[in-house]
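Record type: monomer structure entry
Structure origin: computed from sequence
Chain ID: A
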Amino acid sequence: MKINFDKSNGLIPVIIQDHTTLQVLMLGYMNEEAFEKTEKEGVVTFFSRSKNRLWTKGEESGNFLTVKEISADCDQDTVLIKVHPKNVVCHTGSFSCFGNKDPKGFLYELEEKIAQRIDSKSEGSYTYSLYQRGINKVAQKVGEEAVELVIEAKDDNEQLFKNEAADLLYHLLILLKTKGFTLKDIEEILQSRTR
């Protein structure tokens, strides 16, 4: 990978992103030496503008950033590094320098909406009415959606297949709420299986 260090007096901005959640963790700067050290050792090293020297993130705290993937932007003058953070990233104790808020994609938003409808006992809501019918009915509905997805998988109608997959995910989120679990609980199990 060729990086253009000449455009900005030898320092390029480097965006650090959590490899798993895609949450932006911090912004730092690298000179060519810091970039090469990061590539070689697999641990993020910056050039500290205040200390005027190379600085490996975590050298004092032990909260190292293990490199998972490095990519450059279209002009080769900014770098994105996806990392596995050992612990919190920010010197303030926050997970990210941009705040502690957990990153959440659309499935998490949908999970929140489902929980809100159930917790507020939203009358007229399909979600709440299914939840009211109890665990057996919710589990049965997940089973029905799973069977419908399998049937559509054997056919060639991509749109029907995607719709059935969406229905299964939606009803699975209702089942998780009914059982008192969250998407994050399941995500943690999947993550532990890949280590």
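Annotation 1: The longest helix spans residues 158-179.
Annotation 2: The helical segments are 32-41, 106-119, 126-132, 135-153, 158-179, 183-193.
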